[in-house]
Design brief:
The complex is a heterodimer of chains A (about 425) and B (about 200). With about 425 residues, chain A is α/β, with parallel strands linked by helices. In chain A, about 40% of the residues lie in helices and about 15% in strands. Chain A has two domains: about 190 residues, D-Maltodextrin-Binding Protein, domain 2; about 130 residues, Periplasmic binding protein-like II (D-Maltodextrin-Binding Protein, domain 2, 3-Layer(aba) Sandwich). The chains are: A alpha/beta (about 425), B alpha/beta (about 200). Chains A and B meet through helix 3, strand 8 and helix 19 of A and helix 3, strand 4 and helix 4 of B.
């Protein structure tokens, strides 16, 4: 019997996997009638999932971790049984700010993210010395990879995002307008909004996800735990459908079809050629039209991109600790780990021919070259290089050391004090 | 009894915001403020320190609001409405009406529920009015099409007005279609036979 599943999504390029699952037949093959509902805010996604109007949703990976920690406006448990791919995010700064960075004395001619961060630090310092107001930077949600990536980028050059600049939230479709209007000086958002802002002449891309943490999970399939407990078979079918769709999305031969599918007005509603260039990893980074080729800009399945690594939930938790969004405790760490459900992923895909990782957690960011890892079945599995922008690996068994190793951070207590100001 | 709760209505649709504001005032809430421009939202929240914030669910600025709640204590730990989920009928009604709300934690549910119920009912009233207006507009457009069709039949077939009307109605009945659809066909057909330079040729 066909089970109808309602899935909420935000029009972004990484909604590709659920869209393909619904349109290309991967859901139908699993006996699922997958109905997609376009949403306008992450808050709506979260609430409508909690209120059972959605069965599952396209979600920011950190939203599921926050939900397990009981933080945010409507904390209700949601878990990740399957990730929806890597990549897509980028940091874009206004053309005026980038010009100031070029004139800062820091050499940015290499185009490397680290040099951009150092130049930004100089501009931030100069503004403070001259009594200018702090720069304003936007992300899409407090619990998002965008927030942690932008902060990671700034922190790597000694910029304190809680004290040296002002962080705000702007919905993705309004980012380019906010930059044009001077309401914000830069932002971190998913595709296509960076490239659209650049092509409108509003900004310059200074870093992409691959410069910060290439293996980082971006969006995930958010699911209420009661669906897993009560209808484990449905949960597993969804994982299988998403995984198959992710493989289809990764195949370069399907990119034209995928771009056309995503471009539709009821999906992303942006020109198909823009989507195609993004899928190809050809990212326009400045208004002059300079293209940066990033072969792994978007990866939906390759290298276990759909596998919900517990160590990745814990990296997200480490960033929440780093910025004082949550107080450190063993129970909080255990709750964060429960946000990702590799057990469901494995059960769904066992024996399907998909390589099944033998471990749930690993040291993140330690691979400098493609590396084969142990699998339970399904043949060899090669993970891509995954070094962090600061070259410091993350050992999920030593979270405290990892967090205290960051020179720029804000403790939970300091966060409370900042909020009270 | 006059309410001492401070209520902020956030809605980019001015007409709907006004309808909600009126309803809340009529219900005895004196401290009601409306924000229709998202740019001044944070400043207004800091100024008003509302106990309840009512937001249109289609407003993408909900995510910005939540960020603000994260970083500021201007509003005392607001939580999304219906967080206890005991009242699923209210949740359903609110989401269907397009209402979302934030409530300062610790406020008694009995104090907040009438406010949300009011917002829900006003959102529904507004949708109904909007729908009725659209229907009235389309009715007017229909009438214009029928008048044109009548005119065409009168001039092309030499009918009187009542006869033209009766012919349209009879045809609609025979074909089990709406009269406006028949009228539209007549107008379309006539335009096919119209001379480009103006003036009509008899069919």
């Amino acid at each position: 019997m066909t089970r109808t599943i309602t899935l909420g999504f935000i029009p972004l390029i990484d909604a590709a996997v659920p869209i393909a699952a619904a349109e290309i037949g991967f859901a139908a093959r699993e006996g699922l009638d997958l109905r997609l509902v376009k949403e306008v805010s992450w808050a709506n996604i979260r609430d409508r999932l909690a209120f059972r109007q959605f069965d599952v949703a396209h979600m920011l990976a950190p939203m599921t971790v926050a939900s397990q920690l009981g933080i945010g406006s409507n904390p209700y448990p949601v878990v990740t049984p399957v990730a929806l791919g890597r990549g897509g995010n980028a940091i874009t700064l206004s053309t005026a700010l980038f010009a100031a960075m070029e004139a800062s004395g820091e050499d940015v001619s290499s185009g490397e993210a680290a040099s951009h961060a150092r130049a930004l630090k100089r501009v931030v310092d100069a503004r403070r010395a001259n009594g200018h107001p702090p720069l304003v930077f936007a992300v899409v949600y407090p619990f998002s990879a965008h927030n942690y990536e932008f902060r990671f980028f700034m922190g790597s050059a000694g910029i304190d995002p809680d004290r040296d600049v002002r962080m705000t939230v702007v919905p993705p479709p309004l980012m380019a307008d906010a930059l044009m209007a001077g309401a914000v000086d830069g932002f971190c958002v998913n595709a296509p909004w960076n490239m659209l802002a650049v092509e409108r002449g509003a900004g310059r891309i200074v870093a992409v996800k691959a410069d910060i943490w290439p293996a980082s999970p971006e969006k995930v399939l958010g699911m209420r735990p009661d669906l897993i407990d009560g209808e484990r078979d449905t949960a597993c079918r969804l994982v299988v459908a998403m995984e198959a769709a992710a493989r289809w999305c990764d195949d370069p031969a399907n990119r034209g079809d995928l771009a056309a599918l995503l471009a539709r007005p009821d999906r992303m509603d942006v020109p198909a050629d823009v989507v195609r260039r993004l899928l190809d990893g050809e990212v326009t980074i400045d208004p002059a039209g300079t293209v940066r080729r990033i072969p792994d800009y978007l990866r939906f399945a390759e290298g276990a991109a759909t596998f919900p690594w517990i160590s990745q939930a814990l990296w997200i938790f480490a960033q929440m600790l780093r910025w004082g969004q949550v107080a450190p405790s063993p129970s909080a760490e255990a709750a964060a780990a429960r946000a990702f459900r590799p057990d469901v992923w494995r059960e769904a895909l066992a024996g399907s021919g998909v390589p099944i990782p033998a471990q749930d957690r690993r040291v993140e960011g330690a691979l400098t070259a493609p590396t084969e890892i142990a699998t339970l079945s399904g043949g060899p599995l090669v993970l891509p290089p995954d070094r962090f922008g600061d070259d410091r690996p993350f050992d999920p068994d030593r979270i405290e050391d990892y967090v205290s190793g960051f020179s720029v951070r804000t403790s939970f207590r300091e966060r409370q004090a900042l909020a009270g100001e | 009894m006059a309410s001492t709760l401070s209520i902020l209505v956030v809605d980019e649709n001015r007409a709907r915001a006004a309808i909600i504001e009126d309803g809340l005032r009529e219900a005895g809430h004196a401290r009601v403020a409306v924000v229709t421009e998202m740019t001044g939202l944070v400043r207004e929240i800091e100024r008003l320190k509302p106990d309840v914030i009512v937001v249109d669910i289609e407003n993408p600025s909900r995510d910005s609001l939540e960020q603000f709640f994260e970083v500021s204590r201007s509003v005392q730990r607001p939580i999304a409405m219906f967080v206890d989920r005991s009242d699923s009928a209210s949740i359903q009604a609110a989401v269907e009406a397009g209402v979302s709300a934030y409530v300062v934690d610790g406020l008694k549910k009995e104090r907040v529920k009438p406010i949300l119920d009011m917002a829900i009912s006003r959102f529904n009233t507004f949708s109904r009015l909007t729908r009725e207006l659209a229907e009235a507009r389309s009715e007017l457009a229909d009438r214009k099409v029928i008048d044109r069709a009548k005119g065409i039949l009168m001039s092309h077939r030499g009918l009187k007005e009542e006869e033209a009307y009766a012919l349209l109605r009879q045809t609609a009945m025979n074909e089990k279609r709406k009269m406006v659809e028949i009228a539209r066909s007549v107008v379309t057909a006539a335009s096919l036979f119209a001379k480009p330079a103006g003036g009509r040729e008899d069919p």
